[in-house]
Amino acid sequence: MDLGGDQRRPVLVETPRRWVWPLIFAILIAGVAAGWILLAMLGRWADSLPEPTMQPVKATPAQVAAAAEAAARNPGGPRWGTVPVPTYPVGVDQSVEARVMINCVIQGDRTLGDCRIVEEAPLDRGFGQSALDAARKARVIGDDAVGERVQFTIRYLPPRD
């Protein structure tokens, strides 16, 4: 009867380390470092962009009165061919709700020109400039409105969850 006492246990042989995992970690670390450097470079690049050419102009009381008169003539507001699509100003939390009332002249090519901020809330957060940029890209429909001033409100609403 053999109780197994004379059997030898196999000697554990150390397997060579696999080089795959250190390579994966090195690639991962290099990718994170490259992404961090790229974001830092893009941040500096965005700061070096020129200021927009159309600056906000605060309307005088006489201009506000003229805008109200123009809005009364066209109570439904302009008929849009291309609706103004505003974007949140850079660095402003998108949970902030804002409203900008703009008054513009409809030009011959149906774009908006001589735009002025009539009312902006909240102030000094960049919403007025963003609304002016959106108005610059908009177009209206109809020949009868060329040369007239139109007044409309652009609203910034937080995204719905």
TrEMBL record:
It comes from the Bacteria. Keywords: Membrane, Transmembrane, Transmembrane helix. The chain crosses the membrane at residues 20-42. This is TonB C-terminal domain-containing protein. It comes from Brevundimonas lenta.
